[in-house]
Amino acid sequence: MSFTIKVKLKKSLKVFILVLLSIFVMIGSVLYFFQEKLLFMPSRLAQNYQYQFYHDFEELFLKTDESTSINALHFKAKKPKGVILYFHGNAGDLSRWGAIAEYFVLQQYDVFIMDYRTYGKSTGKLSEEALYKDAQYCYDFLLEQYSENQITLYGRSLGTGIASYLVSKNNPKQLILEAPYYSILDVAKDRFPMLPVKQVLKYHFPTYQFLPKSECPITIIHGTDDAVVPYASGKKLSELNIENLSFVTVEGAAHNNLIEFEDYHKTIQTILN
User: Fold this and answer.
1) What domain count does the chain have?
2) Which of 7, 69, 98, 103 has the fewest CB atoms within 10 Å distance of its CB?
3) One domain, residues 143 and 179
4) Is residue 194 pLDDT above 70, yes or no?
5) pLDDT for the residue numbered 103
6) Does pLDDT of 20 surpass 50?
7) Coil, strand, or helix at residue 129?
8) Is the pLDDT of residue 262 over 60?
């Protein structure tokens, strides 16, 4: 091979490497600056929007700090066995999640569910710490009406990390997690295996750190065909050697259809009734 050809090959290789690095940096930058749009998918509601649900409810606005107003719904069962503090997934708003929460009113439980900052009618700036703060505010609000052993924490998808944080700081009756993650980092690594997600993530929600601090019973329900939060990520939580943790596998269930499976209903009815 001639000297000229070798020089050209080296230049081509350098250009190729630079292009790859540029693409790598560009994708990493997009992930860093737009991660909130990837993680949170809120929809907004007009402040005068009127909720309509089958069961009785009270609409509330909680002033968790000077610049934040958290919109929440408090459903009332006819003969409540307790209250469920429900933390919803990453998409939509209370006009959707309120209807989903009504399932638990049918189990004869009051249900309290809030919209996160920037969702629905809620205002305020998003951050992981702010979400924890708002969640604790809601928990303390319920303590004015219920004893702590009447409060069940329920987290779904994104909300599982928030519910898990609360259980590490309080002592509710029990914790139920639907399609939870080991951590957001764990899910991000699965979704973007070639990117330095650990270095760019601003949100962590380390569920695996919170659950061992819990003193109450924990029930995890996860579908094997979950394409949003991998089943393997949730299953790792069952390997934390927590004595009071039960892991329920729902064969064939995806991320958004667990309620279509009898195993889900049996589990919920057993632990609530």
Assistant:
1) 2
2) 7
3) yes
4) no
5) 97
6) no
7) helix
8) yes
- Statement to judge: residues 3 and 93 lie in one domain: no
Give the pairing of strands 174-178 and 110-114. Answer: unpaired
Q: Of 229, 127, 227, which is closest to residue 180 (Cα–Cα)?
A: 229
Q: Tell which residue, 142, 22, 147, has the closest CA to residue 87.
A: 142
The whole model's pTM is what?
0.88
Residue 84: φ, ψ to 5° = -110, 120
Using CA atoms of 88, 72, 207, 149 in order, give the dihedral in degrees to the nearest 10: -110
- How crowded is the C-beta side of 149, counted as CA atoms within 13 Å? 0
Name residue 222's beta-bridge partners: 249
Residues 237, 220 contacting (CB under 8 angstroms) = yes
Same domain, 158 and 96: yes
Phi, psi at residue 100, to the nearest 5°? -65, -40
Same domain, 253 and 185: yes
50 and 133 in a single domain? The answer is yes
Give yes or no: residues 215 and 253 share one domain: yes
Range of the domain at 227: 42-272
Compute the CA torsion angle 173, 178, 179, 184 (nearest 10 deg).
-50
* 9 shares its domain with 118: no
Helix (H, G, I), strand (E, B) or coil at 43: coil
State residue 188's pLDDT score. 81
List, for residues 35-93, the tens digit of each pLDDT value: 677 678 899 999 999 999 999 999 999 999 989 999 999 999 999 999 999 999 999 99
CATH of the domain at 243: 3.40.50.1820
